[in-house]
Structure to design on (165 residues):
């Protein structure tokens, strides 16, 4: 690898690092995939995927004829009872649902798996406002820290590339 190639690769690596550092905080909806099946600990799943925000999308993936996704109220959730379902999604193998209000949504499987834990209570929250811009002194300290990280990463990339020469 020639010196021009090394310099080009180092410049590209720096550009990628700078772009990653400039990524904004979350400002849009997420798509959250749910493999909706029996014998899954959905309490742990909730801990791993929370928080949920208004306008997020839940996409349930399930086996047609073996499971369904039933939106119920809190009573139906607690009793695993789909009798007074808000809605029953049983067609196909996927279902996309938008959390369009800040409230708690309740989902169960009416094929008998609810009693084994195949149910979710998802609280949709309001998306927090973006952080205010830092003050001038905070900004210069943050810039110095981010520059140090970028310089360190650039040196590490350059050193690795030079070892390849």
């Amino acid at each position: 690898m020639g010196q021009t190639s090394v310099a080009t690769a180092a410049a590209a690596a720096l550009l990628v690092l700078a772009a990653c550092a400039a990524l904004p905080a979350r400002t849009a909806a997420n798509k959250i995939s749910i493999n909706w099946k029996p014998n899954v600990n959905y309490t742990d799943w909730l801990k791993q995927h929370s928080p949920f925000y208004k306008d997020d999308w839940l996409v349930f993936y399930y086996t047609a004829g073996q499971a369904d996704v039933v939106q119920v109220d809190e009573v139906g959730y607690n009793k695993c009872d789909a009798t007074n379902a808000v809605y029953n999604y049983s067609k196909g193998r996927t279902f996309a649902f938008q959390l369009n209000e800040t409230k708690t949504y309740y989902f169960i499987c009416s094929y008998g798996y609810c009693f084994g834990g195949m149910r979710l209570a998802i609280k949709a929250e309001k998306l927090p406002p973006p952080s205010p811009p830092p003050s001038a002194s905070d900004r210069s300290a943050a810039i110095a820290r981010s520059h140090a990280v970028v310089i360190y990463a650039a040196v590490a990339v350059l050193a690795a590339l030079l070892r390849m020469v």
Observations:
- The two ends are 5 Å apart (CA to CA).
- The first helix runs from residue 3 to 21.
- The chain has a mean pLDDT of 79.
- The helical segments are 3-21, 42-49, 74-79, 136-164.
